[in-house]
What we know:
The chain has about 625 residues and is an alpha/beta fold. Helix content is about 25%, strand content about 20%.
Amino acid sequence: MELVLADSSEAESSTAQLDDLVLVAEFRDRIYPGLRQDGTVERGGDKPFHTVINGENFHVLEQLTFTHEHAIDAIYIDPPYNTGARDWKYNNDYVEGDDLYRHSKWLAFMERRLKLAKRLLKPDASVLIVTIDEKEYLRLGLLLEQTFAEANIQMVSIATNPAAVARNRAFGRSDEFAYFVKLGDAGPSPLALGPEWVTRKGRTHLGEIRWDLLRRSGSGATRRDSPGNFYPIFISADGSRFTGVGTSLPLDASPDSVPVPEGQVAVFPWRKNGSEGRWMLGPQRAAEAIADGALRIGKFAAGRTPIYYLASGERSKIANGTYQVIGRREDGSMITSTIDGDERSTLPGTQWNLDAHDATQYGSRLLNNILVDRKFPFPKSLYAVEDALRFFIKDKPSAVVLDFFSGSGTTAHAVMRLNRQDGGRRVSISVTNNEVGAEEQAQLRKAGLRPGDPEWEKWGICDYITKPRLRAAITGQTPDGSPIKGDYKFTDEFPMAEGFKENAAFFTLTYESPWRVSTDRAFAAIAPMLWLRAGAEGELIGKLSDGWAVADNYGIINDLDRSADFAAALRAKERVRIVYIVTDDEGRYQQVANEIPGIETVRLYEDYLRNCESNGDF
């Protein structure tokens, strides 16, 4: 126990019986989050640190509103699926399968966390990815639409178990679902995908630009649906070239009434059943497309000759250099280059059925290679998480990725893989508690142990799985120091024993009283948060022995009489991005801020107290 008297600046250590301790804070009293450092693993040089925070995720999310508000590029979460298998708690109790309020409890649990997550995502371009199975996917979809009303939401089915999980009197489950909640301008980027991603036949997947039929098909395809798009396109009698575009016919006008110049053929948008259809383009745009080489004559069939066109998306691929124009056909249409399979960029459909996403092979067994006999229930395939993130952060080499149900640490591991593939400096923030499994808890209680005991805590998720997995992934060594066996597969194949050139820092959530914070007695607990907000790079300023300190990319001052020395030290640094000024005096704060123009300043502890206030709710 650590004791700090109100009139003392020094902390005293003391040992006492639990029954002798006196309660000094009631439920609903305000508390504030801090962080205790639990070590690092460093192999990445000057790269920023991935962070793992051991704590209740709701409180950590509150904490992150101070360090990362509107700063997260992607969130990937795999929340409890609410199967009734004692896999999550509500108000500190496991939710059982026969709980009549199981679904409403789960929704309340998720809603509070999603609302905080929304505050962290960049509103102009970011994505939230949530995986779920059939137990709650409908309710989750409604909750996401309610919480992210302005977002574009799409659901993908991912095959995770080719063997299928047997169900009593039901089809075996072989997949799960992933919701992609896209904020602002966020959207998946076309990527160079292998043939295993192709779920349908099409010329685009063969590396050729796609020519679509100019006659509309599907709904709204009749002449009456768009009378202005019923007109003749004139071609030569041998079908070799375009000769002109006619005007739109009134609804009561017959195609036979159109005069056809000698040596030419009038082509109308006749449907396969012989009825009158409509073109995709109006007469003027069709003429412009002919001039641009974006209309092409198909196999000659007189007045029913098919006409093809390049839609705007395909023409944009010519404009951006994906395809080059290498010639012209006799009808004036463009001849374009083709793309080799390894260079072809495209987007997949909404059914992903890849060997790489097998959760048994590349989740459970891969984790067993890393941690050797340490078990974790239902870890995700490393490559499934990697693929999902790649579509959204491939072009963001400094992206910040959050997982607040991090469990075995798959998301952080996937981000490291993405960095290795393109030299990126992306960072992950992994949040998990140190909960011990229900069966293990029963055994530990029989042994007379309780939460907080070292022999209890060492079996918790964070200490037993998450941190060891990321440490092992970076170093290439299992927890016992042996080289990890096996190779990474698919996009980037190399021995797992090579590890990654990455850095990681580990923290545990603490709770601080408003008195300790406001009197600057909780600096050691708040210091890691200041480092996180500054980008989690380089040195962490843990104390202010001279009343101020400056690291590579941030600075802190609490003795404002030393502001001149502080400002000079800041000017000597090239990458300082943020400065924290500790004062209750608004005037003094502005005075110091004015001495360091061009650098973001934050007043402590006002900004921290305003963002991080918690009353202990979950």
